[in-house]
UniProtKB/TrEMBL annotation:
Family: Belongs to the aldehyde dehydrogenase family.
Keyword hit for Oxidoreductase: yes
Domain called MaoC-like: residue spans: 542-652
Record's keyword annotation contains NADP: no
UniProtKB keywords: Oxidoreductase
Domain Aldehyde dehydrogenase: 24-449
Residue spans crossing the bilayer: none
UniProt-listed Pfam families: Aldedh, MaoC_dehydratas
Gene this chain is encoded by: paaZ
Name of the protein in its database record: Phenylacetic acid degradation bifunctional protein PaaZ
Amino acid sequence: MRTVSTQLESYVAGSWFRGTDGGEPVLDAVTGDEVTRVSSHGLDFAALVTHARQVGGPAVRRLTFHERATLLKELALHLGGHKDDFYAVSLRTGATRRDSMVDIDGGIGTLFSYASKGKRELPNDTVVLDGAPEPLGKGGTFLGQHLYTSRTGVAVQINAFNFPVWGMLEKLAPAFLAGLPSIVKPGSQTAYLTEAVVRQIIASDILPAGSLQLVCGSAGTLLDELGEQDSVAFTGSAHTAELLRNHPSVLHRGVRLGVEADSLNCSILGPDVTTQDEEFDLFVKGVVTEMTVKAGQKCTAIRRVIVPEPIADAVVDAISARLGRITVGDPADQSVRMGALASLGQRDEVRKAIEALRTSAEIVYGDPAHVDVVGADAERGAFLSPVLLRARPGAAEPHEVEPFGPVSTVLIYGPVHEAIELAARGRGSLVASLVTHDPQVAREVARGLAPWHGRLLILDRDDAAESTGHGSPLPMLVHGGPGRAGGGEELGGTRAVLHHMQRTAVQGSPDMLTAITGRWTTGSRRVLDGVHPFRKSLAELRIGDTVETASRTVTRDDIDHFAEFTGDTFYAHTDPEAAAANPFFGGIVAHGYLVVSLAAGLFVEPNPGPVLANFGVDNLRFLTPVKAGDTIRVSLTVKQLTPRSSADYGEVRWDATVTNQDDEQVATYDVLTLVAKTATRTATEG
C-alpha cells in the first residue's frame, strides 16, 4: 500500500506549506491506524488569494478556451498514467476498487469531457457570445449583444470527504475553462488522496503557475479574503452551508456561493411493474447498488425507496436477498463488495440517523450494531452493515433524516400521485429515478418530479444496457438540485463554464460590436479587396472579408427541373392553381433549397485552394419567396475565424445573405467551412 506523508501539506503561492502545530490525526478507515496529520495552522490566507488573483488568474486568462481545453486533456492523460498510485492511497479511505473507479476514473473522465467540450462548443477566443445581436433602433446602427467574459477573481471549492478526487476535478475543469484559478479545500478525512493528486498536477507543470492551490486542514480566514469577483462552490452538510450563506463575504461583498447539500434522493417503482418484469430486477439492483457503492456515502445515493403497495413485500424480500450477497470488509480483498465508511465518527453519525428513522420505521434487513467483516477488525475499522428499513404509513423521518451511509427506507404508495407527493416531501433532491415501462406513467411522474429535482433517470428494459445508473453525475448533465439539495448547479457541459463567467450586455454600432466581439455583426463594414475570400488561407482571412456575387435569374425551368430531379413535388412548386390559392406564395415559387444551391453556385470559387470542405449550414431562414423571373445575388462575408490548435486548418463561419432584384432579403444563413491555415501551391496555380 502506498505510503502517505506523516503530515499533509498545503500548496500556497508556489510552495508546499506544512501546518505549524503538529496537526490533527487522520485515521485509516479500514484499520483505524493513523495515516497522517492535517493542519493549516500558520497558513497565510491573504497570500494564497493574492497569488491566485495576481499570478494564476492572468496566466489562465491569457489562454483561449481551446488552449485551456488542450491543457485539461494533457492533465487528464498525465493523471491517468498515475492511477495505480491513487488507487493504492484510496484503499485507506475504505473504498473498494469499484468505489475508487467512480472517484478517480470519474474525475479524470470529467477532465477529458470538458477538454472535448471546450474544443467543440467554445470559440478559440476568450469571449463567448450569448445569442444574436439585438436591434435597438430602426436604422440598424445601434445594437446590443450579450457576451460572457472571465471574471478576475478566484474559484474556491470546499469539498466533502466522500469524493476526494472527482469532487476536486469536476469543479476544477469548468472553472479553469472559464479562466479562473482554483483554491481547493478538501474534506480533511480523505485529504491525503486529494493531496496526492495535487502533487502530481503540480509536478507535471501542465497548468499555469498559480492556477491551482491547495489548503489541507481548516479553511481559516480564507472566506474573509474573498470579494465581488470570487466564488465558492461548497459540497457538504446543510448546517455548514447555512454558516457559509451567512458569512459577511457572501452577505455584503458579493461572493457567489454555490451549494450542494443534504439530499434525500428517491427511486420510484412504477405501478405497471410486476415481479416478472425486467424492470423489477432493474429496480432492485439499482437500489442495492446505490446503498453499497462507496458504502452509501454518495450525495446521489437512494435514501427513499418508493414502491406500489401490492408488491411492497416482494420488493423488500428481493432487496434483502440481494443485500445478503454483499460481503463487507477490507477493500483490498477481492471478495469484498463494500468497504468501510470514511471514519468511526461517520459511522456514529449514520447509526444516530438510523435510530432517528426507527421512530417511524422498522429494520427489515441488517443490524447497525453488528456486521460480519472480511479481512479486518469490525470495530477498529469504520464498518457498518447495509440497513434497509420499512416505514409506517405517514412516517415523517424518512423525509427529514439523511443517513449518509448504506441505508435506505422503503415507503409505500397507492395512486401514482401519492408517489409524486412522497418524493416532493424530501423538499428538493439532486436526483430521482423512476423504473417503469409505461410512457404515460413516465410522463405523469416526470412532470411531477421535475420541479423538485436536478436530474431524473427514467429506467426501463430499453435503456438499461447503456444507463449509467441512478447515482452517477455526468459531465454533460446538470448536477445540483433545488431546496434542501442546496439550490446550486454544477456540471451540465458548457453551462458550468458560463456559470463562472460574467454575462454583460454591450451596446454600440455594428462596427464597434464587431471589434469588441471578434465576430462580424450585420451592418458593420465589409472588406472588398478584389480577392475572392476562398483564395485566402486562414492566416490571410480577416473578419469582414466579403465577396459580392453577380446576379442570376431563376426560371420556371429551374424550378421544374429541381422538382423532377429531387422528387420534391410539393404543390407550391408544381401546381399553379394550388400555389395561387396559397395566401403566402400566391403562385409557383422556387424551392428554398434550390435558392440555397443557386446561391452556392454564385459565391463558390471552383479552383483548388485553401478552402478544404463545407461542413454545414446554420441558422437557415427563408424570408421572401422567389418566383420565376426573380433575380438573386449573394453577399458572403467572413463572420468568425476559429483556428484548430491540433490541426493545420481551422473553421470559418461565413455570413450569407441572398437578396432579390428589389434588395429584399430572400434567405440568410451561416456557411461553415474548413480552411487551411497557410496557402499551398496547386497545379492550377502554376
